[in-house]
Design brief:
Length: about 375
């Protein structure tokens, strides 16, 4: 058996080179990564070594999978594993025709509305207008209701509609409170989430509050070495706050850096934004953070202007890679229908922590509580 070895710094380019030289029908045996030593103070660089076996068409006795077919099969297996890990009602979210009943497009189920009367019915309709899922609206409003004898339907038994919403939120949503209320000793938070949700800006809102208001010792580590200017932006924020800043892309270096920062109160880790369907890139983030897996609290940042089905899909996909500590909502100022504030924690059972209300650092940030959520969904 003849084995060809290709070396380089980009795995996809090595595969393409092998296919160009040996033909499309090649056997990719495996690949490995090695750290290329550099002189003096230069950082070591990750290098790939690809092992390929050419295929002689005359000797083929069984079908040989092309790389694209192999990749497709692997992705299918990953997708199947992810879906099998989800609750039954959440499976099939990626296909519009298979959406669970509570996020299907179309009219609201009359069965839900028929269960309520008076102010309770009006409140359910108000919440649905704010893009709250009907089943979620029912759960929230029911907690503030009593049975109306005349109609044999549920009506509010609270003084105001806002009190009813708060009562339902307290029953169905968990709150972490501010980060400094956690356990003693160093606390490490990693901000993860899709692209464009504001991870870096909101990380530094947290850092600003911890440093300026709480007088805590804070360090920031960025693993976002992909986006042009990302490190520069983060470094500028860090310089303003006069706190240490590190840019790291390797698991071992991350662990060594954290060991040097053990006397700090908080370490905040910024990660690169990745699509929840980009399994390979999410795996890279997980690998970088893996050396601190038991210490890190993963904060999933979600934009309030996401569609319900998209946001739920994001959460479940990210949960297959990271144990999510809490949901951090952003861009509440960019939507008139913030139903996601209720839908996501009620449907996923995940706690919520903070809400970003604008771009100003550090002013536009709120610690989430029942009253705050209710104020965005109901005016009185």
């Amino acid at each position: 058996m003849e084995i060809k070895i290709y070396e380089g710094y980009n795995l996809e380019e090595l595969i393409e080179k092998a296919k160009n030289e040996l033909g499309e029908d090649i056997k990719i045996l495996h690949y490995e990564t090695v750290e290329e030593k550099r002189f003096l103070f230069f950082k070591s660089k990750k290098k790939y070594r690809l092992f390929v076996e050419p295929v002689d068409e005359e000797e083929i006795t069984e079908p040989v999978l092309k790389f694209e077919e192999l990749l497709e099969k692997v992705e299918d297996l990953i997708e199947k594993k992810i879906r099998n890990s989800l609750p039954k009602y959440a499976q099939g979210l990626a296909s519009p025709e298979n959406l669970p009943p509570h996020i299907q497009t179309g009219s609201v189920s009359s069965n839900i509305l028929n269960e309520f009367t008076g102010d309770a019915l009006h409140l359910v309709e108000q919440l649905i207008e704010k893009d709250v899922l009907p089943d979620v609206a029912k759960k929230i409003v029911s907690e503030g209701c009593g049975l109306d004898i005349d109609t044999n339907k549920w009506d509010l038994n609270t003084v105001t509609t806002k009190e009813a919403v708060i009562k339902g939120i307290k029953k169905h949503i968990q709150f972490t409170g501010s980060f400094e209320n956690g356990s003693e000793g160093i606390q490490i938070f990693a901000f993860v989430g899709p692209t464009g949700v504001g991870k870096t800006t909101n990380l530094f809102k947290i850092a600003s509050q911890l440093v300026i208001d709480k007088k805590k010792k804070v360090a920031v580590i960025s693993t976002d070495t992909f986006k042009v200017g990302a490190s520069n932006q983060a470094r500028t924020y860090a310089n303003i706050l006069n706190i240490p800043f590190y840019s790291i892309s390797e698991s071992k270096k991350l662990k060594n850096t954290v060991e040097q920062l053990r006397k700090f109160d908080f370490i905040l880790i910024d990660t690169v934004g990745r699509s929840h369907y980009d399994y390979w890139r999410l795996g890279e983030i997980k690998e970088i953070l893996s050396s601190l897996e038991e210490e890190i609290k993963h904060i999933l940042t979600i934009s309030c202007n996401f569609k319900n089905e998209d946001a739920i899909e994001v959460v479940y996909k990210y949960q297959t890679f990271f144990p999510i500590h809490s949901l951090f909502f952003t861009k509440i100022d960019e939507t008139l229908k913030p139903g996601l504030l209720l839908n996501l924690p009620v449907e996923t059972k995940l706690p919520v922590s903070y809400l970003s209300t604008g771009q100003r650092v550090p002013e536009d940030l709120k610690v989430l509580n029942p009253e705050t959520i209710a104020s965005y969904l109901i005016s009185s």
